[in-house]
Amino acid sequence: DAGITQSPRYKITETGRQVTLMCHQTWSHSYMFWYRQDLGHGLRLIYYSAAADITDKGEVPDGYVVSRSKTENFPLTLESATRSQTSVYFCASSAYRDTEAFFGQGTRLTVV
Amino acid sequence: AQSVTQPDIHITVSEGASLELRCNYSYGATPYLFWYVQSPGQGLQLLLKYFSGDTLVQGIKGFEAEFKRSQSSFNLRKPSVHWSDAAEYFCAVGYGGATNKLIFGTGTLLAVQP
Fold first, then answer.
1. Is A47 exposed, middle or buried (CB count within 10 Å of its CB: 0-12, 13-18, 19+)?
2. Partner residue facing A42 (CB), from B43, B101, B105
3. How far is the alpha carbon of B42 from chain A, nearest alpha carbon, in Å?
4. Whole-angstrom distance, CA of residue A15 vs CA of residue B52
5. Which of A4, A19, A57, B98 has its CA 20 to 30 A from that of A67?
6. Cα distance between residue B111 and residue B83, in whole Å
7. Is B79 helix (H, G, I), strand (E, B) or coil?
8. How many residue pairs from chains A and B have C-beta atoms closer than 8 A?
């Protein structure tokens, strides 16, 4: 199906473990984004990518790593998960810098 | 620094009543402004956007928003609310002149009473 999909939808992991959240889009959009959603903060930008092999930090990048070897995929890795990274993570994509962003369904991550 | 403020955390309206959700932004130049809606357990869906031109913007599901530069506001309105409108609503501004990199407000949770 066309669109933007995130996997897994739900994940529980332990403190200190590495976890990777996947994001895949079928539109060949140039831009991709990762946001986290926390109560009282709305959504905050973690990292974004303007094209394959081009990534940049957002508002809250600490503790996260991204890569973009292919246009359609933008995985987000928590190298050593902490409880403060318990959140709902949203991936988004947009065709160009001056077009709107489309969001995935989100991944609810719980770090215990 | 750019910011978005949604002063109402939680609003309850009766079905059929009118609705206005407030949004104020801070940005030096003409902003790109958005309203998104998030239903429980779902992703974000774009309701409407303002890039330039007519300051009254029509969106999906019967929503509209008005850009008021003098008040730095972009309030969302609907003349008659339906029970299915119960959701969380987010106002956002494009960061640094971009339309796709967004700064979000903290959201307003809308409850609809029968």
1. buried
2. B105
3. 5
4. 46
5. B98
6. 8
7. coil
8. 61
